[in-house]
Amino acid sequence: MSQSHNTEPFEALSQEYLIFVISYTSPRWPNPLFLIWYTDTDEDSTDRLLTDQAGNMIATESIPELISTLQVQLTLPEQFIAWLTRIEGLEPSVAIIYDTQALAALIANKKVDLSTLERLVDWRNLFGDFAYQDEQNSYLLPYHDDPLLKQASDYYYNYDFWPRYNTKSKGQTVRWRRPPLEIDIALLLEKLLVTIDQFDARINLVKPG
Fold first, then answer.
1. How do 19-25 and 96-99 pair as beta strands?
2. Distances in Å between the alpha carbon of 144 and those of 123, 129, 192?
3. Distance CA 172, CA 93 (A)
4. I want to staple 91 with a disulfide (CB 3.0 to 4.6 A). Which of 6, 13, 99, 199 is the partner?
């Protein structure tokens, strides 16, 4: 059976339960780690990264290791029990890839185009999900809300994401002029690396056995 036939049911169940395997790479973790991002069933439908009892993110070096780690966790959120039962025997797949090592390299090489900004915004959003999901993570909020990172994020939304979204929803094709992004690239890289370091410090890399 081809990989696409194997992964499609897994992807469908991930979407049904809003539980997703993500791949994460950083300067500290140059080989991909695998984590779980999910939407909680709480009143606010909070987006979360799966954590251990100490509040650190659970990560493994392979997806099968991640699934087997979840199977022996005794304090999983409620929707995980049904999800784990239904994905048994399916080939798991990654929903989203976050490569902060590559992102940092792009900015270091001063390639701060819209594609790079989109990666930066995706990373900032993931960092924000973790920062906001628990009160004990509130010390991370100043890093997420850093004015320079917000400036880059706002530029992407104001001059790319929302214009594309609005014109597409109206069935139009519109060209517009974007002002140049006036930003200190060296400082932007410094701020980015700080958020990566703070995030990496909260990863619990679980080893088999």
1. parallel
2. 10, 10, 10
3. 35
4. 6
Chain centre to alpha carbon of residue 125: 7
Number of Cβ within 10 Å of residue 55's Cβ equals 14
Q: From first to last of its 209 residues, what are the pLDDT tens digits of the chain?
A: 223 334 579 999 999 999 999 999 999 999 999 999 999 888 889 999 999 999 999 999 999 999 999 988 768 988 999 999 999 999 999 999 999 999 999 999 999 999 999 999 999 999 999 999 999 999 999 999 999 999 999 999 999 887 876 766 555 555 667 899 999 999 999 999 999 999 999 999 998 76
- Measure the CA–CA gap between 206 and 55, rounded to whole angstroms: 14
Q: Helix, strand or coil for residue 41?
A: coil
Q: Residues 62, 68, 72, CA angle at the centre, nearest 5°?
A: 140
Task: Show Cβ contacts of residue 54 under 8 Å, excluding neighbours closer than 6 positions.
Answer: 204
Question: One-letter amino acid identity for 3?
Answer: Q
Alpha-carbon gap, residue 78 to 17, rounded angstroms: 10
Q: How many Cα atoms within 13 Å fall on the side-chain side of residue 99?
A: 10
Return the SS3 of 121: helix
| CA dihedral of 158, 196, 94, 53, whole degrees rounded to 10 | -120
